[in-house]
Amino acid sequence: MVRWRPSGATTIVSGASSGIGWEISRQLAMRGATVIAVARRGDRLQQLADSLSGAEGKIVPMAGDLTDAAFRDQIIARAGSISDGLDLLVNNAGIGGIGPFADATPDRLRRIMEVNFFAPVELTRLALPMLRSSGNAVICNVSSVLGHRGVPGKSEYCASKFAIHGWSDSLRAELARSGIQVTLVSPSTTASEFFDVAIETKESASHRRRGAMSPDRVARLAIGAIEKRRDEIVLSPGGKLLVYLDRCCPWLANRLIARFG
Ligand SMILES: NC(=O)c1ccc[n+]([C@@H]2O[C@H](COP(=O)([O-])OP(=O)(O)OC[C@H]3O[C@@H](n4cnc5c(N)ncnc54)[C@H](OP(=O)(O)O)[C@@H]3O)[C@@H](O)[C@H]2O)c1
């Protein structure tokens, strides 16, 4: 299969108003893609579009809530008005939840699953006919190292990212003969607005960004994985170590995480 290329591509990126999604959108547009940039904050999406004068590609802002089925229909209709085929769908929008499961309300679990799992899965379902028309399309799901290994204090978030991980593996196999690649990207802690908006029960936000990767670097690595049509990529050395330890020696991972996690 030929390498995926941004130039001339029609793409959708969710969660484009900040952090990783902003950077993925910016870098794709700089390299010639048309990016339908999705998030709730329309003013931020417009800022992104305005910041790209001189870019080869362009940003098409689409403001709305991805958990709204009617809005998901509108995104696909907008893509259809630009091109018959969709070359890339980046399911990146996500929210976190911090604090023990026992202290949280059912609403936290429901909201996290709606945004991190049901919304991207249903957007993908709608996008599949257009992705098939592309002939060389990629679905990139931005998960997390916590979609490979659960840790305490983030149970609902881990569950949502494990769900995306399992669904991505199934979908990749189902689409293997169709020319559509499914690329799972698993970042570790990234310096974005993520922790500012997480649904918390406890803890202070101050210590959580130590050693964080920049969204710019996460975006470059993610786009590199898309271009190479990789199945999955774990971005940080610490993340790779955690995944490796969990696969090779789960009992040790369990003990270390219960003690220090
Ligand atoms: N930051 C980290 O440490 C980290 C680590 C591993 C994985 N990740 C994953 O990376 C992805 C991007 O996170 P980030 O770090 O860039 O966080 P971020 O800066 O908080 O960005 C999250 C994006 O999602 C959008 N969003 C949230 N809820 C939405 C909704 N209901 N409808 C539409 N858009 C919505 C937000 O836009 P609006 O508020 O404008 O809607 C924002 O653009 C997430 O899937 C996250 O789980 C992050």
UniProtKB/TrEMBL annotation:
Pfam families: adh_short. It comes from Rosistilla ulvae. The keyword Oxidoreductase applies. It is an enzyme of class 1 (oxidoreductase). GO terms for cellular component: membrane. Belongs to the short-chain dehydrogenases/reductases (SDR) family. Keywords: Oxidoreductase. GO terms for molecular function: oxidoreductase activity. This is Putative oxidoreductase. The keyword Lyase does not apply. Its EC number is 1.-.-.-.
